[in-house]
Amino acid sequence: MRKTTLLLPILVVAVAIVMSSVIIVDEREKVLILQFGKVISVKEEPGLAFKIPLIQEAVSYDDRILSRDVEPLEVTPLDDRRLVVDAFARYRIADVVQFRQAVGTGGLATAESRLDSILRSQTREILGSVSSNDILSSDRATLMLRIRNGAIAEARALGLTIIDVRLKATDLPRENLAATFDRMRAEREREATDERARGNEAAQRVRAQADRTVVELVSEAQREAEVARGEADAERNAIFAEAFGRDQEFFEFYRSLTAYKRALQGHNSTMVMSPDSEFFNYLKSPTGKVPAE
Protein backbone atom coordinates (compact mmCIF):
# COMPACT_ATOMS: atom_id res chain seq x y z
CA MET A 1 0.00 0.00 0.00
CA ARG A 2 2.86 2.33 0.86
CA LYS A 3 4.59 1.47 -2.42
CA THR A 4 1.46 2.32 -4.39
CA THR A 5 1.16 5.59 -2.54
CA LEU A 6 4.76 6.49 -3.40
CA LEU A 7 4.60 5.34 -7.03
CA LEU A 8 1.46 7.30 -7.86
CA PRO A 9 3.01 10.79 -7.47
CA ILE A 10 6.12 9.63 -9.31
CA LEU A 11 3.97 8.33 -12.15
CA VAL A 12 2.02 11.56 -12.33
CA VAL A 13 5.23 13.60 -12.48
CA ALA A 14 6.64 11.30 -15.13
CA VAL A 15 3.52 11.59 -17.27
CA ALA A 16 3.58 15.37 -16.85
CA ILE A 17 7.22 15.49 -17.90
CA VAL A 18 6.54 13.33 -20.95
CA MET A 19 3.54 15.42 -21.93
CA SER A 20 5.49 18.65 -21.58
CA SER A 21 8.16 17.29 -23.89
CA VAL A 22 5.69 16.62 -26.70
CA ILE A 23 4.96 19.41 -29.19
CA ILE A 24 2.17 19.38 -31.78
CA VAL A 25 3.23 21.32 -34.88
CA ASP A 26 0.23 22.71 -36.75
CA GLU A 27 0.46 22.86 -40.55
CA ARG A 28 -0.35 26.58 -40.37
CA GLU A 29 2.55 27.34 -38.03
CA LYS A 30 6.28 27.15 -37.58
CA VAL A 31 7.73 26.31 -34.16
CA LEU A 32 11.02 27.45 -32.63
CA ILE A 33 12.72 25.39 -29.94
CA LEU A 34 14.49 27.74 -27.53
CA GLN A 35 16.97 26.85 -24.86
CA PHE A 36 17.64 29.63 -22.39
CA GLY A 37 16.41 32.10 -25.05
CA LYS A 38 18.66 30.75 -27.79
CA VAL A 39 17.19 29.14 -30.91
CA ILE A 40 18.06 25.46 -31.01
CA SER A 41 15.91 24.22 -33.89
CA VAL A 42 12.99 25.03 -36.16
CA LYS A 43 10.05 22.68 -36.57
CA GLU A 44 8.27 23.29 -39.89
CA GLU A 45 6.82 19.88 -40.75
CA PRO A 46 3.33 19.29 -39.28
CA GLY A 47 3.03 16.53 -36.70
CA LEU A 48 4.67 15.66 -33.36
CA ALA A 49 7.99 17.03 -32.18
CA PHE A 50 9.87 16.83 -28.90
CA LYS A 51 11.81 19.12 -26.60
CA ILE A 52 13.60 18.78 -23.29
CA PRO A 53 11.16 19.59 -20.50
CA LEU A 54 11.95 22.53 -18.21
CA ILE A 55 15.07 23.41 -20.20
CA GLN A 56 13.71 24.02 -23.64
CA GLU A 57 10.75 26.15 -24.70
CA ALA A 58 8.55 25.97 -27.83
CA VAL A 59 7.34 29.18 -29.48
CA SER A 60 4.99 29.01 -32.49
CA TYR A 61 4.52 31.62 -35.23
CA ASP A 62 1.85 31.86 -37.89
CA ASP A 63 3.06 30.64 -41.29
CA ARG A 64 0.06 31.93 -43.27
CA ILE A 65 -0.23 35.14 -45.34
CA LEU A 66 -1.20 37.89 -42.91
CA SER A 67 -2.85 41.28 -43.48
CA ARG A 68 -1.99 44.57 -41.83
CA ASP A 69 -4.10 47.73 -42.10
CA VAL A 70 -1.97 50.86 -41.90
CA GLU A 71 -3.43 53.77 -40.00
CA PRO A 72 -4.59 56.56 -42.38
CA LEU A 73 -1.78 59.01 -42.98
CA GLU A 74 -1.59 62.40 -44.64
CA VAL A 75 0.74 62.86 -47.61
CA THR A 76 1.66 65.96 -49.60
CA PRO A 77 2.18 65.33 -53.35
CA LEU A 78 4.23 67.59 -55.61
CA ASP A 79 1.29 69.93 -56.28
CA ASP A 80 0.81 70.56 -52.51
CA ARG A 81 -2.70 69.13 -52.55
CA ARG A 82 -2.76 67.19 -49.30
CA LEU A 83 -4.34 63.74 -49.33
CA VAL A 84 -5.31 61.24 -46.65
CA VAL A 85 -4.22 57.74 -47.69
CA ASP A 86 -5.60 54.52 -46.25
CA ALA A 87 -3.50 51.43 -47.12
CA PHE A 88 -3.02 47.81 -46.17
CA ALA A 89 -0.30 45.22 -46.73
CA ARG A 90 -0.16 41.45 -47.01
CA TYR A 91 2.96 39.79 -45.65
CA ARG A 92 4.35 36.53 -44.36
CA ILE A 93 6.97 35.44 -41.82
CA ALA A 94 9.61 34.04 -44.14
CA ASP A 95 12.47 33.47 -41.69
CA VAL A 96 11.27 32.66 -38.17
CA VAL A 97 14.80 32.64 -36.73
CA GLN A 98 15.53 36.15 -38.00
CA PHE A 99 12.03 37.20 -36.98
CA ARG A 100 12.67 36.04 -33.41
CA GLN A 101 16.03 37.78 -33.30
CA ALA A 102 14.53 41.02 -34.67
CA VAL A 103 11.44 41.30 -32.45
CA GLY A 104 12.45 39.21 -29.45
CA THR A 105 9.63 38.36 -27.12
CA GLY A 106 7.49 41.14 -28.57
CA GLY A 107 6.22 38.78 -31.24
CA LEU A 108 3.77 39.77 -33.96
CA ALA A 109 2.63 42.99 -32.25
CA THR A 110 6.16 44.41 -32.25
CA ALA A 111 6.73 43.27 -35.84
CA GLU A 112 3.53 44.90 -37.07
CA SER A 113 4.38 48.14 -35.28
CA ARG A 114 7.76 48.26 -37.04
CA LEU A 115 6.14 47.20 -40.31
CA ASP A 116 3.71 50.13 -39.99
CA SER A 117 6.65 52.52 -39.71
CA ILE A 118 8.25 51.05 -42.82
CA LEU A 119 5.05 51.25 -44.88
CA ARG A 120 4.21 54.78 -43.73
CA SER A 121 7.71 55.98 -44.56
CA GLN A 122 7.67 54.41 -48.03
CA THR A 123 4.15 55.65 -48.74
CA ARG A 124 5.08 59.25 -47.87
CA GLU A 125 8.28 59.05 -49.92
CA ILE A 126 6.72 57.55 -53.05
CA LEU A 127 3.48 59.54 -53.07
CA GLY A 128 5.36 62.73 -52.26
CA SER A 129 7.35 62.39 -55.48
CA VAL A 130 4.32 62.54 -57.81
CA SER A 131 1.31 64.79 -58.33
CA SER A 132 -2.10 64.17 -56.81
CA ASN A 133 -3.51 63.49 -60.29
CA ASP A 134 -1.09 60.56 -60.64
CA ILE A 135 -2.22 59.21 -57.27
CA LEU A 136 -5.89 59.47 -58.20
CA SER A 137 -5.46 58.04 -61.71
CA SER A 138 -4.85 54.54 -62.98
CA ASP A 139 -1.11 55.05 -62.36
CA ARG A 140 -1.70 54.29 -58.69
CA ALA A 141 -1.07 50.58 -59.42
CA THR A 142 2.49 51.48 -60.38
CA LEU A 143 2.80 53.57 -57.23
CA MET A 144 1.63 50.69 -55.03
CA LEU A 145 4.24 48.44 -56.65
CA ARG A 146 6.93 51.03 -55.92
CA ILE A 147 5.85 51.23 -52.28
CA ARG A 148 6.00 47.42 -52.00
CA ASN A 149 9.43 47.19 -53.64
CA GLY A 150 10.78 49.95 -51.42
CA ALA A 151 9.54 48.27 -48.26
CA ILE A 152 10.73 44.75 -49.14
CA ALA A 153 14.38 45.33 -48.21
CA GLU A 154 13.57 46.91 -44.85
CA ALA A 155 11.00 44.23 -44.02
CA ARG A 156 13.51 41.48 -44.85
CA ALA A 157 15.55 42.58 -41.83
CA LEU A 158 12.55 41.59 -39.70
CA GLY A 159 12.33 38.18 -41.33
CA LEU A 160 9.20 39.26 -43.22
CA THR A 161 8.31 39.08 -46.91
CA ILE A 162 5.90 41.73 -48.16
CA ILE A 163 3.64 40.20 -50.78
CA ASP A 164 1.45 43.15 -51.70
CA VAL A 165 0.63 46.74 -50.77
CA ARG A 166 -2.71 48.32 -51.67
CA LEU A 167 -4.17 51.81 -51.33
CA LYS A 168 -7.75 51.33 -50.12
CA ALA A 169 -8.80 54.98 -50.19
CA THR A 170 -7.31 58.33 -51.15
CA ASP A 171 -9.33 61.28 -49.86
CA LEU A 172 -8.93 64.96 -49.21
CA PRO A 173 -8.58 66.15 -45.61
CA ARG A 174 -11.96 67.21 -44.29
CA GLU A 175 -10.81 70.74 -43.50
CA ASN A 176 -9.46 71.23 -47.04
CA LEU A 177 -12.44 69.95 -49.00
CA ALA A 178 -14.10 73.33 -49.60
CA ALA A 179 -10.88 75.09 -50.60
CA THR A 180 -9.84 72.21 -52.84
CA PHE A 181 -13.21 72.08 -54.55
CA ASP A 182 -13.10 75.85 -55.14
CA ARG A 183 -9.64 75.55 -56.65
CA MET A 184 -10.69 72.65 -58.83
CA ARG A 185 -13.76 74.60 -59.95
CA ALA A 186 -11.61 77.63 -60.78
CA GLU A 187 -9.21 75.46 -62.77
CA ARG A 188 -12.04 73.86 -64.71
CA GLU A 189 -13.62 77.26 -65.41
CA ARG A 190 -10.27 78.56 -66.65
CA GLU A 191 -9.88 75.53 -68.90
CA ALA A 192 -13.45 75.99 -70.14
CA THR A 193 -12.75 79.68 -70.89
CA ASP A 194 -9.60 78.73 -72.80
CA GLU A 195 -11.52 76.10 -74.75
CA ARG A 196 -14.27 78.59 -75.60
CA ALA A 197 -11.70 81.17 -76.70
CA ARG A 198 -9.98 78.62 -78.93
CA GLY A 199 -13.38 77.54 -80.26
CA ASN A 200 -14.37 81.14 -81.06
CA GLU A 201 -11.04 81.70 -82.78
CA ALA A 202 -11.51 78.58 -84.87
CA ALA A 203 -15.10 79.61 -85.64
CA GLN A 204 -13.92 83.05 -86.78
CA ARG A 205 -11.38 81.43 -89.11
CA VAL A 206 -14.04 79.12 -90.52
CA ARG A 207 -16.51 81.98 -90.98
CA ALA A 208 -13.88 84.17 -92.63
CA GLN A 209 -12.94 81.35 -94.98
CA ALA A 210 -16.60 80.70 -95.71
CA ASP A 211 -17.26 84.40 -96.40
CA ARG A 212 -14.26 84.52 -98.70
CA THR A 213 -15.44 81.40 -100.50
CA VAL A 214 -18.95 82.89 -100.85
CA VAL A 215 -17.54 86.13 -102.32
CA GLU A 216 -15.36 84.19 -104.73
CA LEU A 217 -18.23 81.92 -105.79
CA VAL A 218 -20.65 84.84 -106.21
CA SER A 219 -18.10 86.85 -108.18
CA GLU A 220 -17.35 83.88 -110.41
CA ALA A 221 -21.08 83.21 -110.89
CA GLN A 222 -21.75 86.86 -111.71
CA ARG A 223 -18.87 86.89 -114.18
CA GLU A 224 -20.15 83.74 -115.86
CA ALA A 225 -23.68 85.20 -115.86
CA GLU A 226 -22.48 88.41 -117.49
CA VAL A 227 -20.58 86.42 -120.07
CA ALA A 228 -23.62 84.25 -120.76
CA ARG A 229 -25.88 87.30 -120.87
CA GLY A 230 -23.51 89.08 -123.25
CA GLU A 231 -23.32 86.04 -125.49
CA ALA A 232 -27.12 85.72 -125.42
CA ASP A 233 -27.56 89.41 -126.24
CA ALA A 234 -25.09 89.08 -129.07
CA GLU A 235 -26.93 86.02 -130.38
CA ARG A 236 -30.29 87.80 -130.02
CA ASN A 237 -29.02 90.86 -131.86
CA ALA A 238 -27.60 88.63 -134.55
CA ILE A 239 -30.98 86.96 -134.94
CA PHE A 240 -32.74 90.32 -135.00
CA ALA A 241 -30.30 91.63 -137.57
CA GLU A 242 -30.72 88.54 -139.71
CA ALA A 243 -34.52 88.76 -139.42
CA PHE A 244 -34.48 92.47 -140.27
CA GLY A 245 -32.33 91.74 -143.33
CA ARG A 246 -34.71 89.07 -144.54
CA ASP A 247 -38.01 90.94 -144.07
CA GLN A 248 -37.75 94.51 -142.97
CA GLU A 249 -41.52 95.10 -142.98
CA PHE A 250 -42.22 92.08 -140.72
CA PHE A 251 -39.49 93.16 -138.34
CA GLU A 252 -40.99 96.63 -138.04
CA PHE A 253 -44.45 95.09 -137.52
CA TYR A 254 -43.10 92.86 -134.73
CA ARG A 255 -41.42 95.78 -133.03
CA SER A 256 -44.64 97.84 -133.20
CA LEU A 257 -46.67 95.00 -131.62
CA THR A 258 -44.11 94.70 -128.86
CA ALA A 259 -44.34 98.43 -128.24
CA TYR A 260 -48.20 98.24 -128.14
CA LYS A 261 -48.02 95.36 -125.64
CA ARG A 262 -45.74 97.26 -123.33
CA ALA A 263 -47.55 100.61 -123.63
CA LEU A 264 -51.18 99.58 -123.64
CA GLN A 265 -51.47 97.90 -120.23
CA GLY A 266 -54.21 98.18 -117.65
CA HIS A 267 -52.37 100.55 -115.31
CA ASN A 268 -51.89 103.18 -118.08
CA SER A 269 -55.04 105.27 -117.81
CA THR A 270 -53.98 108.15 -120.04
CA MET A 271 -51.78 108.50 -123.13
CA VAL A 272 -51.21 111.89 -124.75
CA MET A 273 -49.75 111.98 -128.28
CA SER A 274 -50.45 113.38 -131.73
CA PRO A 275 -53.14 111.53 -133.81
CA ASP A 276 -50.79 111.31 -136.75
CA SER A 277 -47.99 109.84 -134.62
CA GLU A 278 -46.02 107.04 -136.24
CA PHE A 279 -46.80 104.95 -133.15
CA PHE A 280 -50.27 104.20 -134.55
CA ASN A 281 -49.25 103.45 -138.13
CA TYR A 282 -50.21 99.77 -137.94
CA LEU A 283 -53.39 100.51 -135.93
CA LYS A 284 -54.64 102.92 -138.63
CA SER A 285 -53.79 100.57 -141.50
CA PRO A 286 -56.68 98.20 -142.45
CA THR A 287 -54.19 95.76 -144.02
CA GLY A 288 -51.68 95.84 -141.18
CA LYS A 289 -49.11 97.58 -143.38
CA VAL A 290 -47.41 100.90 -142.97
CA PRO A 291 -49.08 103.40 -145.35
CA ALA A 292 -46.87 104.48 -148.19
CA GLU A 293 -45.73 108.06 -148.05
Report on the structure:
- This protein has 293 residues and is of the alpha+beta class.
- Among the domains are: 2-62, no CATH class; 66-171, Tetrahydropterin Synthase, Chain A (2-Layer Sandwich), CATH 3.30.479.30; 250-284, no CATH class.
- It has helices spanning 2-21, 96-103, 107-127, 132-136, 140-156, 177-246, 248-263, 281-284; strands spanning 22-25, 29-35, 38-43, 47-50, 56-62, 66-75, 83-93, 160-171.
- The strands form three sheets. A three-stranded antiparallel beta sheet has the order 3-2-5, with no helix packed on it. It has a three-stranded antiparallel beta sheet with strand order 6-7-8.
- The longest helix has 70 residues, at 177-246.
Helix content: 40-55%
Strand content: 15-25%
Give the N-terminus to C-terminus distance in angstroms: 189 Å
Number of helices: 8
Q: Which regions are unreliable across 5 or more consecutive residues at pLDDT < 50?
A: none
Give the helices and strands as they follow along the chain. Answer: HEEEEEEEHHHHEHHH
Q: CATH class of the domain at 66-171, anyone?
A: Alpha Beta
The overall average pLDDT, rounded, is: 79
What Rg, in angstroms, do the CA atoms define? Answer: 55 Å
Q: Which CATH-level-2 architecture of the domain at 66-171?
A: 2-Layer Sandwich
Instruction: Give the strand line-up of the largest sheet.
Output: 3-2-5
CATH-assigned homologous superfamily of the domain at 66-171: Band 7 domain
